[in-house]
Amino acid sequence: MNIDPKDAEATNPNAGRGTAPDAALPPLIWLVPVAITLFAVLPLPYGYYNMLRVVVTGFALWATWIEYERSKGAMEMPVIVFGAMALLYNPIIPVHIFKELWVFLNVMTAIAFVRQYRESKRAVGDGALSD
Q: How far apart are CA 49 and CA 91, in angstroms?
């Protein structure tokens, strides 16, 4: 099925424009991995940490793509950080580290996603957060 670019513009008002890849989503969505990684510093059942791996990997891959698009294909620091985060938290080949280091990594992960939340708010033009 061939789609005429003019038809795509008619059905999608953002087609062909330089909008942020995450502009259609509410910025608060980025607080989900923040909450689950900060909650993970508590002693919880092993199943919670498996769920955390799936969620954080998904959000990290998504953030990697968004940052890659924002940087127009350049390998800037956020692309590398979120890509490394996706590898670290991946549930398929889990990385096993001692609890104290995981606590530190969870806090650093939360900070990275707070940054993504702030960038997302700027991308959609909401000036509620100030530096």
A: 10
Q: Token pair for residue 116?
A: 């993504």
Give the separation between CA 10 and CA 32, rounded to whole angstroms: 33
The alpha helices in 23-98, defined as continuous H runs, are 31-39, 46-70, 77-89
Residue 34: closest CA among 130, 100, 99, 116: 116
- Rounded to whole angstroms, how far apart are CA atoms 82 and 115? 11
Radius of gyration of the chain (CA): 17
Residue-wise pLDDT for 51-66, tens only, equals 999 999 999 999 899 8
Q: Is the pTM of this model over 0.85?
A: no
